[in-house]
Automatic annotation (TrEMBL), chain A:
Protein name per UniProt: 3-isopropylmalate dehydratase large subunit
Catalytic activity: (2R,3S)-3-isopropylmalate = (2S)-2-isopropylmalate
Enzyme Commission number(s) of this protein: 4.2.1.33
NCBIfam families registered for this protein in UniProt: leuC, PRK05478.1, PRK12466.1
Gene: leuC
Organism: Natrinema thermotolerans
Amino acid sequence: MSEGTLYDKVWDRHKVTTLPTGQDQLFVGLHLIHEVTSPQAFGMLRERDLEVAYPELTHATVDHIVPTADQSRPYEEDAAEEMMAELEENVREAGIEFSDPTTGDQGIVHVIGPEQGLTQPGKTIVCGDSHTSTHGAFGALAFGIGTSQIRDVLATGTVAMEKQKVRKIQVDGELGEGVEAKDIILEIIRRLGTEGGVGYVYEYAGEAIESLGMEGRMSICNMSIEGGARAGYVNPDETTYEWLEETDYFQENPERFEELKPYWESIRSDEDAEYDDVVHIDANELEPVVTWGTTPGQGIGITDPIPEPESLPAEKQDTARRAQEHMRVEPGETMEGYNIDVAFLGSCTNARLPDLRRAARIVEGREVADDVRAMVVPGSQRVQKAAEEEGLKDTFEEAGFEWRNAGCSMCLGMNEDQLEGDEACASSSNRNFVGRQGSKDGRTVLMNPQMVATAAITGEVTDVRELPETEVTA
Amino acid sequence: MSDEVEIPEVDAVSGSGIPIRGNDIDTDQIIPARFMKVVTFDGLGEFAFFDLRFDDDDNQKDHPFNEDRYQDSSVMVVNSNFGCGSSREHAPQALMRWGIDAIIGESFAEIFAGNCLALGIPTVTADSETIEALQDWVDENPDGEIDIDVEAEEVTYGDETIDVTVDDAQRKALVEGVWDTTALMKSNAGAVRETARELPYVDDAAIPDAD
């Protein structure tokens, strides 16, 4: 068993008791809610005549179903309007703060928590959304929960959990040009598998992680769940503290920053911490990674050949064959030159300001290829505003991208932003599952934002490093 | 008080089987996101595996959930990493509302298994050969009874009894009828407040007064 890791320390500080099942009852420091997975939980509370126990530690936003074009109320789609109205009613009744679109603070739940300073090191953070692992970038213990667990958290401020093992993923070296945090996590999932992390929490460490800004760390922690790990984290450091100091919470309560810093320092993994497993990755060896299949683990370097299913472990062969049929790719070829119809820059993985900046640098002075539908969906209203102020919106629009309002959008196609028919999409999101982007015949190729921008320009999957006369940055 | 919810003990589940073959069957396959634009779980059963069951014109495709012989089945037999992807409880809710009471598989994604437990649905595991043999048997014996003894970690079908694994906490929760944890955890409200007070980041004003 692990000892002295951030995970162990945060767990111990939040453990209320051990339940008769052997699970621990953990106190929840921040409960984020959104419109898709919470209404049923509020319904269960009403059935049981229970109230929200810790409304001040709960925060709501709307992201999954929110339209990204016309956001005037009532929403054009009745189901979306109903879900929004239900959330409004629930938060009003319980006294929960709601970053709704009228506040200017709305956005994808995993973008707004860190923006507002709600996400902090050493907190336990839960949300009815598997990408809650994102918040681990700040040294929080953050994981997704189901709706019955949301009911538990609303009613008690706690969640029942079994303690997991800790795997340290040590990423040494330096990323090359055009290679990003996204490529690190896609490589980790490719190597360890989509179920390699089941039963584990991932600690990301090493100079390649430490040299990333908070946004890059969030991209990595975000996709922990795609590797089967319910949570992933990075130990807090000066980069973390610099981010926190700028957030609303600490701008409004500057004294809290100094008060809390010793706690943040104390929960860092010890130098001699013990891990259940350690994995090494060399960042120097990485190139931009793209997926060829229908799970996030089916990725390859942009210059690598698509694997023969027979060359894979027995249990992965059948999945690979079906994936290659769905994607219409041939083993032995690379993904370079794969035609795309749609380019999607968005999602809780890659729709923060630096993501959009890097992509904008690629599209500046260029044009989106004919027949490609390209869109940018900022992760939050704040990202959107900041990007507009520094001219990114103009850059994208001049190149032929659509510039939309904040939300989850085409990552999962719960609003009007969906693939049609068998369209292929170069996507900065996190899941390439069949049907994920709204069409069951749609084809998703996951990649980093610079690669999405490049694909939008050329109309096919293209190595960003081969695009002539452009500045690419790590 | 209506929070005294009756939680049944689930020490055994019996029923005929239904094989769902394939590794990495994700939550978007189990319940496509467009069916989640709802504020209750009612009626989700008919959308389980929807895109695998129906084509664009709503014609039935080959899928066990469409086959007459499996319409009364309640024990699903799956392969590895079943339920990977999102945390949507809509996935097990859809399966439960279709009629599934228990799932036997090679392995399950963690959040999915936790969501099943919260509904009292066992997710028991065995190695791939054992699972494939059981899937083949179900094919041959669609009306055949499968008995899952959660407490003894055994599954009996035909003349066979096989050892399966049930996660310790899951087994205790099911067998002792404490898989719905709300009332249990609420009964510790005092200790919860104490834990909260010890955390430097929790504002005292956010901690409720004693009931």
